[in-house]
Amino acid sequence: MAAPKILAFAGSSRGASLNKLLLAVAADGARAAGADVTQIDLRDYPMPIYDGDDEMQSGVPDNALVLRGLIAEHDALLVATPEYNGSVTALLKNALDWCSRPINGEDGLLPYRGKMVALLAASMSPFGGIRAVTHTRGIFNKMGAIVLPDEVLLPQAQHAFDAGGNLLNETARQLARQLGAALAAKAGRGGS
Ligand SMILES: Cc1cc2nc3c(=O)[nH]c(=O)nc-3n(C[C@H](O)[C@H](O)[C@H](O)COP(=O)(O)O)c2cc1C
After folding, report:
1. How many whole angstroms separate alpha carbon 124 and alpha carbon 12?
2. Domains of the chain, earliest start first
3. Exposure class string for 83-107: b at 16+ Cβ within 10 A, else e
4. Which of 39, 41, 136, 161 has the fewest CB atoms inside 10 Å of its own CB, making it the most exposed?
5. Ligand 1 atom showing the smallest separation from residue 82 Cα
6. Which pLDDT tens digit goes with each residue over 120-137?
7. Ligand 1, atom 30, residue with closest C-alpha
8. Distance, CA 151 to ligand 1 centroid (Å)?
């Protein structure tokens, strides 16, 4: 059986993003479980804030088309989201909004229906980004995806990594790797 393909991205564009570091740990866990994981950076797909008038005049931006294509061709999504003011970042939400628009008569939500998604958050607060993850779960559910019940929250993430970007807490490392492995297993079974 072909290795399940997982697309991994974080809702932060920061070079030193703590969410990108946490995402990489989960991605390694998915690879160890046999998945083919591609980790992308949303910074490489800049797009304007969604505007219905712009869409009418110019259509969906090229970067959104490319990103939507990547989402469509992968079996599952691994997403780490920062929490901004108690919710998901504008970067992540805007990308998902653009990438959910109908294209040439194709249902905009087609790439998301039945797609397996696993969520993580790294935040500087003691609460670990629980609100952002809960909102992101709701967004993907609304789009028709199936979000794994387990999630990984990394509180006080500014102290969680060493200078080399390694996650210091072994339990947190194992939980992130296990989430990646669980997603690989689910995606490999076509979500069953
Ligand atoms: C505009 C803004 C709002 C924030 N609001 C929250 C918040 O509500 N809860 C929280 O835990 N952290 C909040 N933070 C801090 C983030 O947890 C922190 O910046 C984190 O490092 C962002 O993720 P990143 O490192 O992946 O970029 C906020 C940061 C910014 C810039």
Report:
1. 14
2. 5-188 (3.40.50.360)
3. bbeebbbebbbbbbbbbbbebeeee
4. 41
5. 23
6. 999 999 999 999 999 999
7. 84
8. 18
Task: For residue 12, give the nearest of 102, 107, 123 by alpha carbon.
Answer: 123
Q: How far apart are CA 61 and CA 94, in angstroms?
A: 12
H or E segment to which residue 8 belongs = strand 5-10
- List the residue whose alpha carbon is closest to atom 4 of ligand 1: 84
* Ligand 1 contact via 39 beta carbon (within 6 Å): no
Tokens 């504008």, residue located:
90
Write the DSSP symbol of residue 103. Answer: B
Per-residue pLDDT of 68-102, as tens digits, reads 999 999 999 999 999 999 999 999 999 999 999 99
Ligand 1 neighbourhood includes 12 CB (under 6 angstroms): yes
